[in-house]
Amino acid sequence: MAMGLVQILNRRRFWQGRWLVVLAMVSCWLVIWTTPGVATGDQVLSSGVEQVEIGEPADGETVATGSPMTQGSALFAAGRLAAAADVWQQAAQQYETQGNHLEQARALYYLALADFNLGRWELAHQANGQSQTLLKTAATDTALLGANLNLQGQLQLVLGQPEQAIETWQQAAAIYVSVGDATGQLGAQLNRARALQTLGHYQQSQQLLEQSLAKIQTQADPAVKATGLKLLGIALQAVGDLERSQSLLTESLALTQPLVATKPIFANQASATLLSLGNTLAASGETAAALTHYQQAANLAIQPLARLEAQLNQLQLLVKTEQWSQAQPLISALPHQLQALPPGRDTVYAQVNFAASWMRFAQGRDQSAQTRIAQLLADAVQMARGIGDIRAEAFALGQLGHLYETVQQWQDAQQVTQEAMQLAQGLDAPDLKMAWQWQLGRILKQQGQTDGAIAAYSEAVGSLQSLRQELVALNPDLQFSFLETVEPVYRELVALLLDNQPQQPQLQQARQLIESLQLAELDNFFRHACLEAKSQLIDTVDPTAAIVYPIILADRLAVIVSRPGLPLIHYETRLPQPEIEAAIAQLQLYLNPHFFEADRLRVSQQLYDWLIRPATDFLAETQTLVFVLDGTLRNLPMAVLHDGQHYLVERYGIALSPGLQLLEPQSLSVGQLDVLTGGLSVPQQGFAALPAVDIEVNQIAATLPTTQLLNQTFTTDRLKRTLNDVPFSVVHLATHGQFSSRVEDTFLVTWDGRINVQDLDALLQPRRRDPQQPLELLVLSACQTATGDKRAALGLAGMALRSGARSTLATLWQVKDESTATLMAQFYQQLAENPGMTKAAALRAAQLSLLQQPQYQHPFYWAPFVLVGNWL
User: Fold this and answer.
1) Sequence-distant contacts of 601-605: CB under 8 A, at least 24 apart
2) Which end of the chain is less packed: N or C, by CB atoms within 10 Å?
3) Whole-angstrom Cα distance, residue 75 to residue 486?
């Protein structure tokens, strides 16, 4: 797990660089200097000022001669960012002395660019601001001002100011329009799309990307068009649209490859596109195709570093997929290539990347490699120190600490990891701090230093929460690797807190961690931090409810139970995680009517013994059980747990919560209920007919005031217009739908299309809705979880929260629509006839009415209906 995080941190540097490429390329297209610059990959810096010598190189050091701007460009291109920053700082001072404000502004901009790449964001902000001031007051260079604004937007985004970044990039776009530069405008649009994605404005982001594509397609020059398509493909990859990313990168490659035959310089462009395409394919799980593209990128690359980057990505994927024999040739060849690279940040990161893959490859195969890996990492540390790159040094030191951790040299591991942490503390680098805090926690735990381990883990969680926006919006690799890089930090800390008879402070912290993990999982699902926790826990407003927090840990199933005004209680079942998950999967299987009742009851009682029985006395006066479920438990209806005599639903009302701090603690006002029903009773878009939907919506209409949209009238546009006209308190959709752990596969079916979960809030929460007239209840009566997806119920939680409804009633699997119609009629009748009844109690009564009917006694018919959210 730790190695995976180190590789992702390395990829994080790659992604920041790729987004900076948009900025750098646009700057170069706009700012045409008279002297050629020095290029590496896509980054180009150049200057047209007179030749000025600055100092002498140190012994053994080669620096480009010429103007300070050219020297800085050469250092920057070589990855010696700190040295480049020093040169440009001196240049800015010289130009200030000479009174050359335009060149001073240009030098300050380059200085800001170097500081940005070094992670010195405040210094970058200062230098870029000074450059802008000079351009606006003492000098005029519209193109350079556009580059300044581009960088300013980048800085605002990484500093957590996406709204300001959008405004800045709009200003940059206006400048590009004024100078007639379509490519510059494209770069600004791509950056704005990323910022909108960060804020969760997916539709606006998509519109901008579509506009960008339209402009690219009008380009007559194939080279410019190929570059634009490549940039857009990378942008779409960053926002998670992998299918479109692959399509555009493939189109870019098709345009670039013919150019290589006549102009070999385009080989680097084609290689970079192949590398990006390989990354998209790898993220999509298309391993073989990704490996092929990495190999092609390496074969085509002219620059050694570009070739090495492709090979390192290839090796990382081979190791991840345990293709050891294919990885062996790269393990043998890459050390020699690394030795040939000049000192620079990219070289340090390449060494650390290779060391991470080599460590995993060597485990159980070549223990003698550990010494060589240690030497490689020590060399990387020394190189980082030599070029003055503190972030790269912290990165390399932390990985060296992980090497000591893997060989159980605990004291060395602790010392080196603490050194890496101290370096990271001095940087604005919460990602590095989190990685090494987590690593230190593991090391201290192995040495029996529990208090120190808990402190280190707690700091790691704090760093994760400070990274909340970036984890899901600026770093797609972490989004794709959530299970191995983020989630374990929470779970391992919970396990530490629950060891050795925890007291109330430990139980309270563990409960809060489980809540925070729920929030992190939903952030990861949506790919942006769209959910805000509330300071008041809703269980404090319902004295008859108990909250049950089960969490699946590596060696146990732990449960914390909360009742208002009482101390928390805790109990656990010590079993390996695979055995716990096997029992859950077995009960899911036995809920099919084709299996024997005795088998179903046996497993159901086993899970009851684990989850509920130890708390029976504690729950004596409880009416409602609210489960904050974890892992594969989310796919299982708690109503089917059996104590040997009764199902759980026969004793309690049951609700699910994705996290109590996300809920609005208001009770239902039945007198204000007005219902919009929509659905499909006929086959549509490959989905089967639901003939009983007609009965279902008519029975609802007989109970409550209802507006109906059925079949041909149930279109996305008609639904949107109807919801805009009337603030319905209940929206009941009797249509096919699917819940999945993938946001793009979580949807509802309409007559003319699908409503994705990302679009649900805009549809159900029109701007004209009065906050005093909220959407009380969303009912999805014919949905199901995706087959074979262990985390599919995340889609249900996501749908519930994205809708903005206080409560959502949905199905975990699709059942006969006749029994669904019967249950729904009972549910609404209970609400209408019993003022003050909670939604959880109304659902329980409806489920019991089916349970008492011989044809529907089996849990298959009544158990899949779950209430998510506010149960009041």
Assistant:
1) 601/642, 604/640, 604/641, 604/642, 605/642, 605/643, 605/644
2) N
3) 36
Helix (H, G, I), strand (E, B) or coil at 593: coil
Is there a single domain that holds both residue 768 and residue 856? yes
Residues whose CB is less than 8 angstroms from the CB of residue 247 and which lie 6 or more positions away in sequence, other chains included: 233
Compute the mean pLDDT over every residue in the chain, rounded to the nearest whole number.
Answer: 83
Query: Considering only CA atoms, which of 97, 100, 105, 88 is closest in space to residue 54?
Result: 88
Summarize the confidence of residues 69-98 as an average pLDDT. Answer: 89
Residue 29 one-letter amino acid: W
Paired with 545 in beta bridges are 624
Helix (H, G, I), strand (E, B) or coil at 695: helix
Domain end position, chosen among 399, 427, 455: 427
Which long-range contacts does 419-425 make (Cβ < 8 Å, 24+ apart)? 420/394, 420/395, 421/394, 423/390, 423/391, 423/393, 423/394, 423/397, 424/391, 424/394, 424/398
- Residues 810 and 822: their CA atoms lie apart, in Å, by 15
Give the total residue count for the chain. 872
**Structure confidence by residue, pLDDT tens digits, 188-203:** 877 887 777 666 565 6
pLDDT class for 58, splitting at 50, 70, 90?
very low
User: How far is 301 from 272, CA to CA, in rounded Å?
Assistant: 8
What share of the chain in percent tops pLDDT 70?
84
- Residue 264 has phi, psi (to 5 degrees) of -55, -20
Distance CA 245, CA 229 (A): 9
Reply yes or no on whether the pLDDT at 47 is more than 60: no
Q: CA 668 to CA 671: how far, in whole Å?
A: 9
Give the amino acid at 229. L
Stated pTM of the model: 0.80
**Domain that includes residue 442, residue range:** 430-531
